[in-house]
Design brief:
Layout lengths: L3 E7 L7 E6 L7 E10 L2 H9 L8 E2 L3 E9 L11 E5 L12 E5 L3 E3 L6 H4 L2 H13 L16 E5 L4 H13 L3 E6 L4 H7 L3 E4 L4 H6 L8 E3 L4 H11 L26 H16 L7 E4 L7 H10 L4 E5 L4
Parallel strand pairs: 9-10, 9-12, 10-11, 13-14
Antiparallel strand pairs: 1-2, 1-4, 3-5, 3-7, 3-14, 5-6, 6-8
Helix pairs in contact: 3-4
Amino acid sequence: MTQQHKASLLPQKQGKLEVSTRLTPTPRGTQALVKVTAAAVNPADWKIIETGLFLETYPAVLGYDGAGIIHAVGPEVTNFKVGDRVIFQGTLDYDYTAYQEYALVDTELIAKAPSNVNDDQHQHSPQALSLHTLVYFRKQESPPRERPNCQRQVVLILGGSSSVGQFAIQFARIAGFSTIATTASSQHTEFLKSLGATHVFDRDTDATTIRSAFPSPLGLAFDAISANATQLLAFDLLANPSPVSGAHLTIIAVHNVFGFSDKFRDLSVPFWQKLGEWIEGGELVPNRVQLVNGGLAGVPDALELSRKGVSGVKLVIRPQE
């Protein structure tokens, strides 16, 4: 087994990424070691580097969405074998992150990759999908292996063309929402409707126009962007005007979700058991991909592209290049 492997390392808080080597862990128990063939960029990656949040020790390794091939398995693994193509989500433990050639995974929290989707498309699913599993199902009694019933409910998803937004639309469809509205650039309208959106508003549409499209007040808004403008729009849409002209009394429940699978195993284990089936059957459509060349050395370029902003695609690097 490989004793060392290359990784994109953050040597210090708010430092600059560099390619170096680190020890390759040995899988134990129900762990597996995955040869990472594709890793996706999340906006959280460059925000973590800039702010220094979440990382307590250095050098650090980021990357929270990955796909690859199982290279070795622990002695208690029974449902996966060497050579299986899998999808996985990274954690805050650096042995489990995706910006490196090899990563550990918990085999209860991975899925076999369907043959009808390539690794570049697979890698970006876990972070966004785990987040939506928690957002939509955390407050319910039944895990996502049992299809919920949200008929006659309306959900508004702000930022539908983003990676998070695209999966929010699809999970809302799976959850049975009768009306799925979203905001996005108008160029993405038909694509987002193909994912399940029933209404697509231009991202610059004001709250009054959006509100007027529905016969009753909106009860649920999902902010896939989390910028000041989208948060204020969500608050405005969810607010109920008071009888007094010019005055508003607003009571809004805001739920923050830490979207890592290992934090809520009651939901995430059944989610991972269903993920491959959903993708293979076409119920979940992966994001469209923009490949960034350079392998691990290309991670800084990929993060810079993410910072500048991309629309309707997910940035991907290949650690083995």
